[in-house]
Amino acid sequence: MSKHILIIGTGSAGKRHAMNLNALGCTLSCVDPRRDRLDTAANEGMNLKAGFTSMEEAFAGGERFDAVVVASPPSFHVDQAIAALRRGLPVLLEKPVSPRLTSTLELQKVVHNTGIPLLLGYTWRWWPPLLRVKERIDQQAIGKLIYVKFTMAAHLADWHPWERYQDFFMASKTLGGGALLDESHWLDLMLWFFGMPAKLFGKVEKISGLEIETDDNVDLLVYYDNGLRVSLHLDLYARPHEKSIQFSGENGTLIWEPNQIKIGRKMDPDWEIEAFSYDRNDMFISVAKEFLNILSGASVPTCTIDDGARVLNLVEAVRKSGIEEKVVKLDLLK
């Protein structure tokens, strides 16, 4: 029987989830305060049953929903997810959980108390080449790790060419935009690979000429008790765009780029290359399939509210470090 999914937010992320769930046979209804976005969603060939301008209207209308996807700006995530969970509806929640740790912990408590599943959309965890990287690292393919460098650099004006970047939620502090929050994917991946670090030093800044009120530059140096050092750079101003992770170990270097893994073991750049041909939407399809499995009774194996809380713990530590200009110990924030 077709599942009826309520999509909250029909911007870029919401439409992607809607299209993928529709392709997997779901019936969809959408919530967005902008009627023009609802009209666009209705005209894009999706199996759209109804459109609403608020969650209250959706829940008061007599429709029966099987689950909710929360794909609104981050400042709305917690209230909307809690509203769904308290109605017994499983939630697929876009990252980050919230702009703030306090509200993240509030949602975490509701998830644990209700027992209703929540799947968190840190989608790079579903990217097959990164799963392969994790396997190689866990196998110590380049020996004990010494240093890892994460880089995410992409000019904000290129993200949504169909709209002014100044009007995108990423430009707004109130809505929860900015490099640190939106690109917390990379904090999540660091935790996925290595767990919670001991301490960090970070700086969160606005340094470019972008017409935004949010941060566009983040630099971190992260310390693990086992001696591993990690650096992480995020920015919203660079061209060409770059997404990469470099792992340096005692027996060589592994470099991940979205559809390529390179391993070098010699002084010269003589790389062992493993190439892939995945499309970006493939990881979102995998998220949708896992969510439908959860609706059929499966657990939440890949990314949980607890994972999201750990990311916000790091976010708070980075903010604290930047403001106080000092190293912050993570145990102080637990």
Mind explaining what this structure looks like?
- It is a single chain.
- Strand 4 (67-70), helix 4 and strand 5 form a beta-alpha-beta unit.
- The strands form two sheets. The chain has a nine-stranded mixed β-sheet with strand order 14-13-12-11-7-10-9-8-15. It has a six-stranded parallel β-sheet with strand order 3-2-1-4-5-6, sandwiched between helices.
- It has two domains: 4-124 and 283-302, 3-Layer(aba) Sandwich (Rossmann fold), CATH 3.40.50; 127-278 and 312-333, 2-Layer Sandwich (Dihydrodipicolinate Reductase, domain 2).
- Helix 4 runs parallel beside helix 5 (101-114) and helix 5 packs antiparallel against helix 10 (305-324).
- It is 33% helix and 25% strand.
- It is an alpha/beta fold and 334 residues long.
- It has helices at 12-23, 35-42, 55-60, 77-85, 101-114, 128-138, 179-182, 185-194, 280-295, 305-324, and strands spanning 4-8, 27-31, 48-52, 67-70, 91-94, 118-121, 145-153, 199-205, 217-223, 229-235, 242-249, 252-257, 260-264, 271-275, 328-329.
The CATH class of the largest domain is identified as Alpha Beta
Strand order within the widest beta sheet: 14-13-12-11-7-10-9-8-15
- What is the arithmetic mean of pLDDT? 95
Poorly predicted runs are: none
* Total helical elements: 10
List strands and helices in order, with pairings:
Blueprint: E1 4-8, H1 12-23, E2 27-31, H2 35-42, E3 48-52, H3 55-60, E4 67-70, H4 77-85, E5 91-94, H5 101-114, E6 118-121, H6 128-138, E7 145-153, H7 179-182, H8 185-194, E8 199-205, E9 217-223, E10 229-235, E11 242-249, E12 252-257, E13 260-264, E14 271-275, H9 280-295, H10 305-324, E15 328-329
Parallel strand pairs: 1-2, 1-4, 2-3, 4-5, 5-6, 7-10
Antiparallel strand pairs: 7-11, 8-9, 8-15, 9-10, 11-12, 12-13, 13-14
